[in-house]
Structure to design on (206 residues):
């Protein structure tokens, strides 16, 4: 069925997925919206607040006709914070565009501002602040304990042993990198670190 053919139905849901760096969260939004929406638009995070300054959101709105609903998984997907969410909701309602929220305390259809919408946005912002605070506290605790936060190292014990063993057998840096499936720079750093721990090791060369 084509888009125009599906348009014959009385009411359509137009989905908005807010893209973040966390792809799993993006997929979760698609899982909720794709099965029920006539069209789903992805919006990349933007520093702009007003609806008119968000081209992806405007694209989603271009598919909406009278009685259709802009649909989001949770109301905070309309904006990154309380202010942005409120501005977008005001813009939409002034244009006569209703919003359908699938999950959270604001789940349901909305055509005007309400206490529950404001509360949902405020709680979402507070939740994000709490996550940021806990993350920072966790990293600070790790530093005090001599641990380093962040991504797991590219080279684990097995890869490090393989790099050192291949180097002892006289393999070049590039051959080692290809064999262990790491970058040339990682091989250099691994060998340099090993040389610092054992002064008899030779500095790595290409």
């Amino acid at each position: 069925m084509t888009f125009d053919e599906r348009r014959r139905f009385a009411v359509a849901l137009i989905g908005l997925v807010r893209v973040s760096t966390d792809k799993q969260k993006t997929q979760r939004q698609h899982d909720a919206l794709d099965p029920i929406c006539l069209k789903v638009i992805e919006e990349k995070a933007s520093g702009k607040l007003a609806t008119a300054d968000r081209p992806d959101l405007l694209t989603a709105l271009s598919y909406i006709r009278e009685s259709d609903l802009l649909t989001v998984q949770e109301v905070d997907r309309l904006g990154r914070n309380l202010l942005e969410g409120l501005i977008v909701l005001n813009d939409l309602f002034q244009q006569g565009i209703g919003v359908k929220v699938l999950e959270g305390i604001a789940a349901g259809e909305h055509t005007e501002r309400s206490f529950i919408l404001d509360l949902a946005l405020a709680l979402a912002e507070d939740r994000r602040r709490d996550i940021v605070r806990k993350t920072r506290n966790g990293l600070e605790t790790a530093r005090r304990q001599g641990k380093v936060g962040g991504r797991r190292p590219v080279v684990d014990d097995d890869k490090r042993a393989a790099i050192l063993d291949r180097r002892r057998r006289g393999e070049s840096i590039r051959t080692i990198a290809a064999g262990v499936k790491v970058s040339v720079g990682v091989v250099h750093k691994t060998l340099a670190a090993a040389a610092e721990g054992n002064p008899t090791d030779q500095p790595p060369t290409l």
Q: What stands out?
A: Residues 45 and 110 are 24 Å apart (CA to CA). The beta strands are 13-19, 39-44, 69-72, 98-101, 108-110.
